[in-house]
């Protein structure tokens, strides 16, 4: 037998990376951060659309008896190149308002999950555009596709958890859970900072020597995504609808995962 043949087959999958991420979180829990991996390869199903799959990893951080934070992790191993995020702003290190899914349970009843505006740490760059090597103009953007599936799985597990676990013992008690989607990748994350005026209208490209590129440990990917659950706000205009549909997915460079988990908490 040729071990190299088997090793090549193993490395052709993303499972070794996924298992390494789980090991990284588990072995650093209690020392570098307070996020505990409660399950991996958790099956999820959207009964409305018929879509299903497996969640790579779910992390839990208990704030107190009645408030729990969950991170739903998608591990994405890629070969070659970097993910370059466009940020046409002057100050890209800013405090962002994140949309996170919130569920609440009261005695003998559960409230419908809802997307709420919540401030999370850490502060990071924010972008709605990501370029991936080898992606053509007609391709479905890879990060958007992965993010959409991640949000679907997150809503599914949040719905599932409403029917399991301990119920509040008193009418006045409310058990709250907050869910945050995170993509962990081995590829380098780069922010391209530029002014829109630096794009040549006839070429549709950045002019020569324009654009500042900076490697970052993690970034917020914020974009409009279709989800089953809505926000509490009833939009009164198309602009408000656009804002309410915006969701936040944290993208983390795997070597900096411990740093991210150490800082990740409610603001």
Give an account of the 3D structure.
This protein is an alpha+beta fold and 267 residues long. The chain has one domain (3-266). 21% of the residues lie in helices and 41% in strands. It is built from 5 helices and 17 strands. The strands form 4 sheets. Strands 1, 2, 3, 5, 6, 8, 10, 15 and 16 form a 9-stranded mixed sheet that branches. It has a 4-stranded mixed sheet with strand order 9-4-11-14, with no helix packed on it. It has a two-stranded antiparallel ribbon with strand order 7-17. A hairpin with a 2-residue loop joins strand 2 and strand 3. It is globular and about 65 Å long.
Which consecutive residue ranges, at least 5 long each, have pLDDT under 50?
none
- Overall body shape: globular
- Rg on CA atoms, Å: 20 Å
Largest sheet report? 9 strands, mixed
């Amino acid at each position: 037998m040729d071990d190299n043949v088997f090793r090549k087959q193993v490395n052709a999958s993303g499972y070794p990376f996924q298992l390494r991420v789980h090991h990284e979180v588990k072995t650093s829990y209690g020392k570098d951060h307070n996020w505990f991996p409660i399950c991996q390869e958790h099956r999820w199903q959207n009964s409305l659309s018929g879509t299903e799959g497996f969640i790579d990893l779910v992390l839990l951080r208990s704030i107190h008896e009645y408030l729990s934070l969950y991170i739903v992790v998608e591990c994405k191993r890629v070969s070659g190149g970097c993910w370059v995020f466009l940020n046409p702003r002057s100050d890209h290190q800013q405090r962002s308002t994140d949309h996170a899914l919130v569920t609440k349970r009261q005695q003998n009843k559960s409230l419908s999950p809802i997307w709420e505006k919540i401030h999370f740490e850490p502060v990071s760059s924010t972008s709605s555009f990501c370029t991936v090597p080898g992606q053509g103009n007609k391709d479905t953007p890879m990060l958007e596709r992965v993010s959409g599936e991640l949000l679907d799985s997150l809503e599914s597990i949040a719905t599932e958890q409403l029917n399991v676990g301990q119920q509040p013992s008193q009418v006045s008690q409310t058990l709250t859970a907050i869910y945050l989607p995170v993509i962990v990748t081995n590829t380098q994350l780069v922010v391209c900072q530029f002014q829109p005026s630096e794009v040549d209208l006839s070429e549709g490209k950045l002019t020569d020597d324009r654009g500042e590129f900076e490697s970052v440990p993690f970034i917020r990917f914020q974009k409009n995504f279709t989800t089953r659950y809505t926000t509490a706000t009833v939009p009164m205009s198309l602009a408000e609808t656009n804002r309410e549909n915006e969701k936040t997915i944290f993208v983390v460079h795997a070597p900096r995962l411990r740093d991210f988990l150490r800082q990740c908490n409610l603001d």
